[in-house]
Design brief:
The protein contains 8 helices and no strands. It is mainly alpha-helical. It has one domain: UraD-like (Orthogonal Bundle), CATH 1.10.3330. The protein is globular. The N terminus and C terminus are likely disordered.
């Protein structure tokens, strides 16, 4: 399922930013937090190993570089993790018609059958009422791609999703792809 929109975090009561806590965390804890951003273990190890990061921009630049270097196996691992812990589509509740929700389920099933991995799309920055239409149109457009082209698009969507999740990890609102 697609990524949720970013939600702001508040500075913790102890005054330490999320980035400060991430920089000072034990390697295993940092890697676990990073795996929640992108399911590639190599990606998480690489970013954790280069701490400390002076600011969010440096962290995001390192994440982008690591994302561009994902091997086909790393990408498959990250996509498999997305399918194991899908994010519910906020706009899929209440709004929209039963037909749209049925179409979304059918499109997801067809996508996974065709490409053999989860459909991922970054929805950061969209209003809740736009989510269902964006996912439906995105999945329908992408079903027409060749497998290699779609894997490249999925990799870029994962990179964008990871950036939004890293911004949350660092405690910074509104920092997206």
């Amino acid at each position: 399922m697609p990524s949720q929109k970013c939600r702001p975090r508040r500075t913790p009561p102890d005054g330490a930013s999320g980035l400060d806590r991430f920089n000072s965390a034990a390697a295993g804890a940092a890697e676990a937090a990073l795996l929640a951003c992108c399911g590639s273990r190599r990606w998480a190890r690489r970013i954790a190993a280069h701490r400390p990061y002076p600011d969010l921009e440096a962290l995001l630049a390192a994440a982008d570089e690591a994302s561009y270097d994902l091997s086909p196996g790393d990408l498959a691992e990250a996509l498999a993790e997305e399918s194991l812990s899908p994010q519910p589509l906020a706009g899929a509740r209440g709004r929209g018609t039963l037909a749209a929700h049925t179409a979304l389920r059918a499109a997801h099933a067809e996508y996974e059958r065709r490409f053999r991995h989860a459909f991922v799309i970054c929805l950061d920055g969209l209003r809740e009422e736009e989510l269902l239409d964006r996912v439906l149109s995105g999945i329908r457009d992408r079903l027409g791609h060749e497998p290699d082209e779609e894997r490249a698009i999925a990799a870029d969507e994962l990179r964008r999703i990871a950036r939004g999740r890293l911004a949350h990890l660092a405690g910074v609102a509104g920092e997206g792809p």
